[in-house]
């Protein structure tokens, strides 16, 4: 495997691991705050990110590269509100999208069309994840501090689909 591609894919493996860890911390915070629907949504989201990481690990190894399992720093543990959680989540996903775009760019530079093709799944996934996070933030903005609205939000969020089906840990 091209060394430049191997290096940038390993960076992406790390980013997906960091995402999974961050969403796990958010899920745990939500669970401790008694927001159980949101906690379940975020636990599932953390699982999805782990699947994203696994797909990359397998791809690198199957193509003759060496996947590196990264050390992950402890994520933020406390959050101010649901809006705080989902603002950070969107911000994080925007950063991941930039990284994916960089991988795609390097694939074209290196004329690695196989990896370029593989990465298209991630490009589509980022579109979905960003749209979902924006949609959730719009809902939270509409609800404001209305307790009844927040109750319904927490009940309904479990039915929101995370990620596209091909990469889902447990397709719905
Ligand atoms: Fe794996 Fe949320 O990007």
Q: Which spans have pLDDT < 50 for at least 5 consecutive residues?
A: 165-172
The CATH superfamily title: Ferritin, core subunit, four-helix bundle
Order of helices and strands: HHHHH
Quickly give the structural class. Answer: mainly alpha
How many structurally independent domains? 1
* Count of helical regions: 5
CATH architecture: Up-down Bundle
Query: Care to count the β-strands?
Result: 0
- Fraction in beta strands: under 5%
Radius of gyration (CA) equals: 17 Å
Terminal Cα span: 35 Å
- CATH names the topology as Ferritin
Unique ligands? MU-OXO-diiron
Question: What do the pLDDT scores average to?
Answer: 93
State the CATH class.
Mainly Alpha
Level of helix content? over 70%
| Oligomeric state of this protein | single chain
Described by strand count, sense and barrel closure, the largest sheet is: none
Shape field: elongated
Topology:
Blueprint: H1 3-32, H2 36-62, H3 82-109, H4 113-143, H5 147-156
The chain binds MU-OXO-diiron.
Task: Give keywords.
binds MU-OXO-diiron, mainly alpha, single chain, 172 residues, 5 helices, disordered C terminus, Ferritin
Describe this entry's structure for a reader.
The chain has 172 residues and is mostly helical. The chain has one domain: Up-down Bundle (Ferritin), CATH 1.20.1260.10. It has five helices and no strands. The C terminus is likely disordered. The site of MU-OXO-diiron has 7 residues, from helix 1, helix 2 and helix 3.
């Amino acid at each position: 495997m091209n060394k430049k591609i191997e290096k940038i894919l390993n960076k992406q493996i790390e980013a997906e691991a960091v995402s999974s860890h961050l969403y796990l911390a958010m899920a745990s915070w939500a669970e401790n705050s008694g927001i159980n629907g949101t906690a379940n949504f975020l636990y599932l989201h953390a699982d999805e990110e782990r699947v994203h990481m696994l797909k990359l690990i397998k791809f690198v190894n199957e193509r003759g590269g060496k996947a590196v399992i990264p050390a992950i720093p402890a994520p933020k543990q406390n959050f101010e509100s649901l809006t705080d959680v989902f603002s950070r989540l969107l911000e994080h996903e925007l950063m991941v999208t930039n990284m994916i775009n960089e991988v795609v760019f390097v694939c074209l530079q290196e004329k690695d069309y196989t990896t370029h093709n593989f990465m298209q799944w991630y490009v589509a996934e980022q579109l979905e994840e960003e749209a979902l996070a924006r949609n959730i933030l719009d809902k939270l903005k509409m609800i404001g501090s209305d307790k009844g609205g927040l109750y319904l939000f927490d009940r309904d969020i479990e039915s929101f689909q995370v990620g596209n089906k091909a990469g889902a840990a447990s397709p719905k």
